[in-house]
Amino acid sequence: MHSRHRVPSQAASLFTLWLTADLVVAAQDQLVPPGFLGHWASTPADCRRGEVDGNLLVTTEAFGYPQSRGRVVSARQSSARVVEFQLSMSGEARGRIETRRFSLSDDLLTLREEAASLPGGATVRVRCAGVPLPPVDDAIADAGFLSFRATLLRAIDRKDRAFILSIVSPQIRNSFGGDGGIEEFEEVSRLDVPDSWFWKEFGTVMRLGGSFASPDSFSAPYTWANWPKSLDAFGNLAVIGRDVNVRAAPSMDSPVIATVSYTTLPHVGTYRQDSEWAYVGLDDGLAGYIHRTFVRSPIDYRAIFSRRDGRWWLDAFVSGD
User: Fold this and answer.
1) Are residue 99 and residue 215 in the same domain, yes or no?
2) What is the pLDDT of residues 203-224, one digit of tens each?
3) Which of 135, 189, 191, 239 is the most buried (most CB within 10 A)?
């Protein structure tokens, strides 16, 4: 079970800061107040089922609907918890500039959207809470794989190029667009370079557990192998620690506004794998920053192994989708 602890006084002041001027403008040109950020659906049951007609992911840059996306052009406050946004639409509504009015309930858990283009004139949604995602490692169920992984981790620590290449499948997948194969793997991973990105990333993946898809197929890390099917893999992150601090700003010196443990949270900023901080939405409507060390996207690098001819092979090491 995941946990979340909020610091009430700090949290309240953070939201109030957004609502003190006619034109809602935030640091780094962010136009969407924290209370509006997050994952919304028609009902709590729809949250658990995943993408439905009423699904909405709100980030600092856009409002994401199932069939379209609206990039925020401008935002203006009209009352304490009401903001009018101009959205530049893509997808099915591509090319349109739409004005939409969103209002929040006092507890920040219900969102009402009004627009002339909406049937009935308004849509009401509830905030979707994070989904518990505890660490899982099924490797202990197979002594052969457990021994193989221990040997692999030692090889990673000593940056043993020969061992890594000895387990790479001839048809290894390295991306979703390339031809694959060992030659491409060597080119991408740069095993000859002592500080290659590969050594750190592969080690992280292998130390984060995983699950068997079948007796002869193992996937790592658990954040990908056990990702909830109801959650959008592009819009959410996994918290991979206990009592992880969520801060008011992207700095270790910034106040802690909440702590979270082994859960998923909507990523409401611009996702960059090389970024030091992730901007996430919390269950109570706040938003804050978690150091990149403690979060992981399900579409970050993952490894897939299969057992053939009595030995384990690395069949894929990919990121993205």
Assistant:
1) no
2) 999 999 999 999 999 999 999 9
3) 239
Spatial contact of 278 and 299, defined as CB atoms under 8 Å apart = no
The sheet carrying 302-308 orders its strands as: 168-173, 311-318, 302-308, 217-220, 211-214
Q: Is residue 237 part of a domain?
A: no
Structure tokens at 171: 């048809």
Round to whole Å and give the CA distance between 140 and 314.
19
Helix (H) / strand (E) element for 153: namely: helix 143-157
Total domains in the fold of the chain: 2
Q: Are residues 217 and 187 in the same domain?
A: yes
pTM over 0.90: no
pLDDT digits (tens, 9 = 90+) for 278-306: 999 999 998 999 999 999 999 999 999 99
- Please tell me the distance from the alpha carbon of residue 319 to that of residue 298, in angstroms, as a whole number: 9
Answer yes or no: do 144 and 221 share one domain: yes
